[in-house]
Give the backbone structure.
Amino acid sequence: MIDAGESAGTVRSVVRSQKYSFQVLLDLDGIINQRYHVLGHPMKFLLDKKGDLVFSAIGFREWDAPEMLEVFEKMIQEPDR
């Protein structure tokens, strides 16, 4: 997860209160937002092993929805990605 526009203290507080088990990075200077053309928040990105963009979407996503499972299946079937 990458957070943009909030202080490290605010993000740290949310991570602790929500008990996230994953790393949250800060985009303090907006470089990630620019590089990936972030259009709104939250925005989701899936990157392959090489760091290439496979999928992007604005807003909430059900990661076990059929369209998302299809994206994951395609990633699994393309081992070179």
